[in-house]
Amino acid sequence: MQTSDDRALLVPTTHPDRILTAVRKSKRTPEGVLVYWGYNEARKLAALGFDAPSPMLRDYAWCGRLKPFDHQKDTASFLSIRERAFCFNEQGTAKTGSVIAAADYLMKIGKVTRVLVLCPLSIMKSAWQGDLFKFAMHRSHDVAHGTAKQRKRVIESGVEFVIMNFDGLAITEKEVLHGGFDLIVVDECNAYKNPTTTRWKVLNRVVHVLQPRLWMLTGTPAAHSPLDAFGLAKLVNPGGVTPYFGQFRDQVMVKVSNFRWVPKRTSAATLHRVLQPAIRYEKKDCLDLPPVTFMSRDAPLTKMQKAYYVMLKSQLLIDSQGEEVSAVHAAAKLTKLLQISGGAVYTDEGNILEFDVSSRLKVIEEVIDEASHKVLVFVPFNHTIDLLYEHLTKRKITCASIDGRTKASARNNIIREFQNDTDPQVLILQPAAAAHGLTLTAADTIIWYAPVTSTEIYLQANARIDRPGQLHPMTIVHIRGSPVEDRLYSMLQGHINDQSKLIDLYRSVIK
Questions:
Q1: DSSP 453-477
Q2: Does domain 69-285 correspond to CATH entry 3.40.50.10810?
Q3: Which of 78, 96, 57 is nearest to 278 (CA)?
Q4: Which CATH superfamily is domain 292-299+363-485 in?
Q5: Fewest CB atoms within 10 A around its CB: which of 243, 293, 299, 425?
Q6: Residue 290 burial (CB < 10 Å; 0-12/13-18/19+)?
Q7: How far is the C-alpha of 216 from the C-alpha of 88, rounded, in Å?
Q8: CA distance 181 to 160
Q9: How far apart are CA 427 and CA 438, in angstroms?
Q10: What's the rounded Cα separation, in Å, for the pair 349 and 328?
Q11: Which residues, 6+ apart, have CB-to-CB distance to 84 below 8 Å?
């Protein structure tokens, strides 16, 4: 579709009357239909099914300190002229920035007043609040989390962007309905795939009453089964999907035994039809993306973890007073704090004290679900490797593990299968045992379950996927739940290998 002097769009079509009837500012030409390039006109063209660009591309000045990628501009343009839409851009394509820009543009032209963002706990601050500072620092925002009173206070504060975890909507439904929200964004929307859940029903009620714009984001729509699309489609495109689950199942699945259904060969075409309107960019299509994208996910400590974390810090402060602290000593003591954050502490007697790390395990699952290819998970401690392996296996995620206990023959078989076969999907690695000599380019995503204290091991571990043979842009995800983890990741990314810095970090953390 061409533009004419930045004022009109030339739409080639064999059915010009559709446009001429719907769009008042349009006229027939030998080449097609010439349409005035305004917001309302572009929106009407999009509603008719034409791939019209938004005047946002002409009028919007991107704010913040980051230059937008081309695919971010296209994504923002697509969303800005659609009331309800999907964004299926892959993980690591910075779709959060696109959404923020589109919302900011709509606010500037008076089409949107207030935005509610629903997302996992792990990205409320690290992704959404962080990107609002980067892309729309002039917009007010806050995170609605904690007690019901705290959540309600944020909603009633009048900030322009309210960020909330999925289940917080059920707690604050009344306040949201009276909060003036006219745009709802659902990030990692696979959480709403099942329309029988309370979570889905609450969102459906809110959308039905408010009739807001609704944008739903995920890099992996229907990743586990075509049936996952049913709940999503009923929210965004209810007229395009059958009203009953059984009817939809018969469209996309075939029964091969009393207890087994498999996808039909036509299921992909059906999903494409019902999950509309939608835009998708894969990382390989985004030529202006850096080869490696770094992301952070928050996994807050549980009450038990917090108590032991504070207790250990106090003990370390007492132990270090009046003593010379070496880099080796600092690394050993910091490791104890990392063990608490990761879920299992090794006592001086060699015993293991376990903690509830359900929030961290949930974040790991979220990242795996969003990944388009295979995944490496680096876990520094053996007992935590066993814990994670057991958890993922129970969730029916095919995985294997390599650490210092793995025999050479088994290690070679695991690597060969990971590189050449469909399974395993996830490979759990002890960084020191797998940081050198391995080529694992079947994966394009690395998850750091917890950081290490060695910059060399960190860089070498990341190089397992960032090497010749890698066909896809890569994503490295840092899981963090404590101050020591956050600071260590900053040091590792900054390639800080000065042992005195490790001592400084130790003293800073315990004080």
A1: S-HHHHHHHHTTTSSTT--S-EEEE
A2: yes
A3: 78
A4: P-loop containing nucleotide triphosphate hydrolases (3.40.50.300)
A5: 243
A6: exposed
A7: 8
A8: 9
A9: 12
A10: 20
A11: 213, 214, 215, 235, 236, 237, 277
Going from N- to C-terminal start, the domains of the chain cover: 1-53, 69-285, 292-299+363-485
- Going across the sheet that includes 292-298, the strands are 292-298, 474-480, 443-448, 374-378, 426-429, 399-402
DSSP element (H, E) containing 261: strand 260-263
CB neighbours of residue 197 within 10 Å: 14
Is 235 in contact with 190 (CB distance < 8 Å)? Answer: no
Q: Spell out the per-residue pLDDT of the chain, length 511, in tens.
A: 666 668 899 999 888 999 999 999 999 998 899 999 999 999 999 999 999 999 999 999 998 777 889 999 999 999 999 999 999 998 888 899 999 999 999 999 999 999 999 999 999 998 999 999 989 999 999 999 999 999 999 999 999 999 999 999 999 999 999 999 999 999 999 999 999 999 999 999 999 999 999 999 999 888 789 999 999 999 999 999 999 999 999 999 999 888 889 999 999 999 999 999 999 998 888 867 778 889 999 999 888 888 888 888 777 654 555 555 455 666 777 788 888 888 887 766 767 888 889 899 999 999 999 888 899 999 998 889 999 999 999 999 999 999 989 898 898 899 999 998 778 999 999 998 886 778 899 999 999 999 998 888 998 999 899 887 888 889 999 999 988 888 889 888 887 766 667 667 766 666 6
Q: Do residues 415 and 409 touch, judged by C-beta distance below 8 A? A: no
Q: Say whether 36 sits in a helix, a strand or coil.
A: strand
**From its phi and psi, is residue 222 left (phi > 0), alpha (psi between -120 and 50) or beta?**
left
